[in-house]
Amino acid sequence: MQSDALATKGVLYAKIQLSQKMFIHVFNTHLQASYNDPSSLKLGDKYIKIRTNQLTTMREFVYQKTKDDQHPIILLGDFNVDARHETDHTQESDEYHIMLKTLAGDCFHVTDVLKDHLGHHPATVGDFYESDGKRVAKETVLTSYHDQGVPKRLDYIFWVTRISDAERAMGPEPTENDTLIAKDPDANTVVSLGEQTEFVPAKRLSLDEEPDDTPRDTALKQEVKEMLEDVLEIQDKSCNVAEMLSKGTIFRQLSDHYGVQCNLKVRKSRKRMSESQ
Question: Fewest beta carbons less than 10 Å away: which of 29, 49, 139, 180?
Answer without folding.
Answer: 49
